[in-house]
Amino acid sequence: MPELKGRSSRWATRDVLFAHFALTDVRARRFRYAERTGRPVLGLAGFSTTSLEVFIRDWSARMDGQRMRLKASFDDATLDLTLTPGRPPVLNGERGLSRKGPGKGNANYYYSIPRLKTVGTLRQGGRAIRLTGMTWMDHEWGTSELAPNQKGWDWFSLRLSDGRDLMLYVLRDEKGRPTTYSSGMLVEPSGQTRRLGPPEFRVRALSTWTSPRSKGRYPSGWEISIPGADLTLRVEPLVKDQELITTGTTGVTYWEGIVRTSGSSRNRGVSGEGYVELTGYAPGSRISPGSRR
Q1: What is the per-residue pLDDT across 134-184, written as a single tens digit (0 to 9) for each?
Q2: Of 71, 81, 136, 256, which residue is least crowded by CB atoms under 10 Å?
Q3: Do 210 and 255 form a contact (C-beta atoms < 8 A)?
Q4: pLDDT at position 177, please?
């Protein structure tokens, strides 16, 4: 773990860790989240710079051989998951460098693992629920900030029933218009990737939802079209209210939640599932893409 030279105190550190944990109960139409902050001292929190190893008290993400192990809990819910990669990581942007603006520092390193075979347990209300499914992992890091004329983004991670995976983000300017640094990546079942620039895809909001807490007005339902890939999708949230107000950690108010999708892929019906993240819609909200994941 990092140490500060010349400082003898066991509390000395230059790092602060933040974590968010959210659960969406689609059947009950209930969304809950928690946030934590920790300093990597005295075993209370820590991280590795050479492998996946990060924790804040009993929340953790660690490598266990070739698999990942995730643990988190809050209130009466405890989650324990084991994730096994089903496909190699996908390098987004220019061989892993994702540009977000014209400046030299307006970029981050970014990769995705869209299909992680997942098993585990959710303990809640005295019940142990066995979980199986697929997980999408994004890892993005850097020192980037949004360009002065950028307000936020709409970010989509969609896993389709025909074996294709789609990541898209629309970077918006102060007037809500897409900027030329919006981008995406389409992954074929073979693992072959296709980078998408702004002229190659279109995202249109179909409706809106207004938060009763932050008063932020978010898009809620979208149509995505990628003509060159014969792909048209309709995306809708499974729960309208999946907003996080993280005043105890990053100070950012954003919407991030589970969605479903349906449409046409290569002239055949297709369905899917995924996650959408929306920033810059709540009053006064602004965030750096380097702090996303």
Answers
A1: 999 999 998 777 788 889 999 999 999 999 999 999 999 999 999 999 999
A2: 71
A3: no
A4: 93
pTM value is 0.92
CA atoms 130, 132, 136, 137: torsion sign: positive
Q: Which domains does the chain have, with CATH numbers?
A: 17-291 (2.40.370.10)
Amino acid at 171: L
The 3-state secondary structure of 88-137, one letter per residue:
CCEECCECCEEECCCCCCCEEEEEEEEEEEEEEEEEECCEEEEEEEEEEE
Rounded to whole angstroms, how far apart are CA atoms 109 and 98?
Answer: 6
pLDDT tops 50 at residue 1: no
10 Å Cβ neighbour count for 109? 17
Asked if 232 and 222 count as a contact pair (C-beta separation under 8 A), the reply is no
Q: Measure the N-to-C terminal CA separation of the chain; round to a whole number of Å.
A: 20
Question: Mind spelling out the 3-state secondary structure of the chain?
Answer: CCCCCCCCCCCCCCCCEEEEEEEEECCCCEEEEEEEEECCCCCCEEECCCCCEEEECCEEEEEECCEEEEEEEECCEEEEEEEEECCCCEECCECCEEECCCCCCCEEEEEEEEEEEEEEEEEECCEEEEEEEEEEEEEEECCCCCCCCEEEEEEEEEEECCCCEEEEEEEEECCCCECCCCEEEEECCCCCEEEECHHHCEEEECCEEECCCCCCEEECCEEEEEHHHCEEEEEEECCCCCEEECCCCCCCEEEEEEEEEEEEECCEEEEEEEEEEECCCCCCCCCCHHHCC
Distances in Å between the Cα of 42 and the Cα atoms of 10, 38, 94, 157 are 7, 11, 40, 37
